[in-house]
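The freezer alarm interrupted the setup, so I double-checked each line after restarting. Inputs confirmed:
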Amino acid sequence: MQKNKINLKKFFALAVMALVLLSAVVTVSAESASSYTYTPSVDGGWITTQDAYQVGKVILQELALTNPQDVFEKDGKLYIADTGNLRVVVYDLNQQSFVEIKNEKFKGPTGIFVNENHNIYVADREAAKVFLLDKDGNLLKEYGRPENATFGKAAVYRPSKIVVNNSGVMYIVSDGAFDGMIQIDKDGQFLGYFGYNNTTFTLWDYVVENFFTDAMKQRLSNKVPFSFKSVDIDKKGLIYSVTQAAKGNALKKHDAAGINLLPSEMVDEVDFADVCVGVRNNTYAVTSTGLIFEYDLNGNLLFTFGGRAISTEKNGVFTNVSAICCDSDNKLYVLDYERGIVHVMHPTDYAKSYHEAIELYNKGKYEEGANLWKHVAAVGGSSYYAENSLAQCLYEGQNYKEALKHYKTAGNREGYSECYWQIRNEQISKAVPYIIIAVIVLAVALLIFRKVDKEKFNKLFAKSIIKDDFLLIFKVLRHPIDSFYGIRREGKGHISTAIGLYIIEYLIVVAYFTLSGFALIGNADNVSVVLITLIFWAVIFLFVGSNYLVSSVGEGEARFRDVVIATPYVLSPFTVIMPFIILISHIVTLNELRLLELAVIAVIAWVLVCLFIATREIHAYEPMAVIKNLLITVFLMAVVVLAVSLVYMFFDQLVNLIISVVKELNYRVFLA
Amino acid sequence: MSSWRKIISASVAVCIAFLCCACGNNSDAGKYSVSGSLVGEVDVEQLSSNRFTQMDSSAEKPLMNYGLEGYKLVCENKNLALYIDEEIASVRIVDKKSGYVWGALEEKDPENLNKTWGSFANSVLSISYMDQTGATKLIGAGNDKAKCKYEYTDNGFVLKVDFGSVIGIALEASVTLMDESLHFAVNDETIEETGENYIAMIYFAPFLGSTVSDNCNGYIFVPDGSGALIRYQKPKKYLKSYSERVYGLDYAIDNLNELNDLKSNRPKDMLKDSTPITMPVFGITHGVDDNAIFGHITAGDSYAYINASPAGVVTDYNWATASFVYRQVYSQPTSKNGAGVPVVQKNKNVVNPEMDIYFLSGNDANYSGMARKYRDILKSNKMLVNNIENVNTKLFLDFVAADVQKALIGQNQKDITGLEYLQKSVKKLSKAGVDGIALSVIGWQENGLSGYKKSNVFNSTVMGEFGNFAALKKQLTENSGSFSLYIDPLRATEIQINSRVDSGITLSQSPIRETAVDTKKFLGDIWYLKPETALQYLNKQFKVLQKNDIKIDIDGGNLLYGEYLVNNFISREDMKSVIVKAYNNIYNKQKGLTLYSPNEYLLPFVSVYRNVPVSSNQEIYITDSVPFIQLVLSGNITLVAPYANENFYSKIDLLKSVEYNLYPSFLLTEEVNIELGKTTLKDRASTCFENWKDTICDVDAFVCDALLKVKGKEMLSHKRLNETVFKVSYENGDIYINYGKDAFEISNGIVVDAENVLFCEVTDDE
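Predicted 3D structure, all chains:
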């Protein structure tokens, strides 16, 4: 199911600079939910959309819960691990009554799970035990530290969260256990560790690994993977986990072997406190600050809502969240451990339509799915998920033309490409007659061209500086050494044409980022032409200036004129080939795009070769001197950039200082 | 082959390839051929949230038992008698109609309060004061440190209280027994500050009508959102109590920047804005339809807070009162990024507070009765007049003409809706049988909604000359509709004003500016204009529009802030009169005015009230939302709900529109939302008319048809009958709203269908 995978890299990059959202002037209504619902937008940022969940009741206030750490819903009852009061509370949602289960062995229950027989598993971190209770709260069994040799003496056993599969195998999240979840069968035998978090490998780790002695490595290598924070299980027995500080894959869905089935670069937070699985295998993760994220079964983000109560306590925003659970109607129960209350969140029509439309797609009812997605997209604005899902339904229903349109709107290059491949096959067969005609026309045109009096033609394009200088671009491609020698020694090229070439190259760069095919660069809407302009001209000026300065110190023979003229010719491969790549990018699919990307790399390599030759010829350097010259040029460019930034920062600080002094003076002298 | 030939042949080949390219045409992206309405089903469980009114308790509980022992009679009239205990400076009021005695605390010296709180609670006058660092303390007139002198008059007394040499504050308050109310007043000139302390706030009988825990049935009523109840419950943990400033914050003093500690990758701006208080009232009930008090602030409202404290916050008492702020602590910025030092306001506000407490009993002793009482007060003061007769519109459509959008360099104008499109849209709706459309155009000025210069007077619109609207106006008025242009005079984005000239100035001498939570948001910061300058600009523009016979709608009716430029300051109270004068002028000249969220003092000039809240702000201690604003204003002012296409289009919302007597509104554009990503309309989820047209027809048919039956009739009462059915009584009959999945039988054979409404007319016999 890669088709509906969000382009997460792009997403992440843009999420950072996402512009949000409240418009400045027209009054915003503060009705329904207390917090905004956000969804990824088609332009790679975020948008507010219709409320996905609204808070219903806030319950359990009368229970005086103290620091409760977990909540579990089963058949209309909420089971709460009331950690601070050393008890388990069972709250009947229909009767609005509760019973408490106390046991002198409880030392701080933090995790709770109820199986099909309504037996209650309680993970108690302080007691270092899992307690199995019957539905009336009678203690059936205790699971202490596994005694198997395989568990290891140094292994940590502090059960904080627990889920149990249909065979009675317990998956225990233990505080400080870095090897994964502890798997214990119903007899208390340790089965092994389940799932794991990878350690990250940084540049520093590379340095340590390759350059340090074993003794130093031993002292420095205290790298351990993150331990899991919480866990849930779906009806099929798949385990879901959240890990704090694991950016990009904080939420995991483990297969039977513990391997993560979700993408490794998801839209998530590093602060997830709990996870729960909905009726349709949609997953909810919540941060301790109360931000709730809903994902589909492939880990794509549907909505995020909720948030922290800071200056005002409202229904639907939270002080500190420890757990979340979900019932058969997709109602969410969010446990605020600081206040000891549960907020009940109801899905709105909007969220229900999402769920229903996803279900229709999964069942293969593409036409109905597409119709419902149209409704959802109409209500929700420019939501990526709705637009992309609509495109998927249309694609599966073989309505490629429509699907292509929606894939393009959604900015999904993979989907677009697959769709375009289907359409292109049809179109090529239709276009064959036209291509044949075009080829004939071309052949005739060439024949006529050959018959034309060449003298006349040449007169038409009288020998001019411009013609010679522009044709030099093509000569550079074939005979770079001669060409650059010519520039330095034979006076080929002129400043005026060089400036013209710079402008053409600038336009090609802009065209690459704005006019390339959708498959090559995606939607061009977010590209800042101003930024491209700035970078292009800054690099050109810096290079020409730096290279001239470096070479004049390093006994290079080139005059400033030569550097200015040679530089655009260095870019000749780019100037000649890039327009073709831009044009072709409109008719390729993603698979063929690899070839195009290869071509781009080849162009860059060619440019580098030209740069080397140009530097050698115009400065009359030996090969080693060329490399030295180029490296110092790059270094000088970096130094200039750094210097400009420093001057800017100092100036900004100076302005700040002056403003502070004036404000302080104003306050002390005139207002006090 | 020569180079030229190579170039030409290669170019031709590429052109052929390009011709073969068949990229999908995306011109209609964002429009969905949706047939049918987008309205869904009712989720009945939502009715248990505090966005809806709950049923009164059926549990038998005693009322409060305030004795008169130790109290002496001050005066009495046919309705009320006033008693006082001079020792603790506490009053008792006997409601002669019901015989019920009202007081602050049942005991002189209750065990569950310490001495400071006990005296604060029992006193008829209490204050808070602050030292030079801004540290605040409470004290009541009944405190041992305070010396009280009483001067009795025919209908009350004057209390002279000196809070002692340590505190160094003295003042006089008058307590007068009126026909149906107790009137409290303080003359600012009597306030003396002789020590190191400053007066911060004044409270009149703060604990009058207070109850303990859930010992008694009843609730506190606060004017939060549409109106809210805090039913008495056992003490619970809360972060803070309800304390909201009447007419919202004073932007020129209060800190506008929202605290935010979400260290998230997703946008941090998460909390929707709360609706500020627009009516300076509060109430308390004891028992179900037994006894109630209703407080109305008659003077000093610009500096008033409504406070309501549920059991569990500091004390186990439920108490509610108004307080009046004389001084507050503000932040004096000393750096560019806004960081500063807290400073106590130097000069005290001119408040001269006055407040009436009314005593209600029987069928009046509930929020409906309070609303009726308030309506009567407003009508007798000519603060509420019948403005509904000239209004025939019932469906409010706001089209955005243009907005400013980010461009390569700076910004440019983005045209969003064309005039021709407007005409076509109105035609489409008329064909579908929709009439009474009030069409308003937003962002009609050059550079659009968030880009037009506030100081400019526009002689044409982005849709063309004013005269071009003639056909559209005719089209609308022929079908009982109206046409107007939208203006938001007081708020601006940074590109709309010259901040040195136009921006209001705070007490700390910086521009009044609200910084967006997300600092990268396009034109996210809001600047507030100098009130007088803004109203001058408004007036100039209004004159031009009036010449062209075009009406205006004004946003920001709830904005009230001072301008504190040294040596030239306008207080919050002064601004009130400036605004009243300006809006009165416009109201008279265009014979009616559509105002967004107007405060109490603007009510006489409102014919259409836009953006009426549909629930409370959902604070955690609030148990119910009630249609208080609607009870007060229905029948005299046309009330309009927030935009339906922003979270208010579901079936449950339509039923609520009928319950709350709110006509529907939509924010619309011709352009699809995908195209608005670079404008300030980016946050508007879905506004494209094409996507909403069927829903508009459905909403109109459902809501307006029901509400037209009670048009121009005052709302008398509102009650929840059972889990799913509400009854709203009007002068001419009752509307039953059934949210449930089953039909509800009202009486013999009269049935409200599931998820539907029914109007039962009152016959003469009844």
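Quick read of the result. The first helix of chain A runs from residue 8 to 16.
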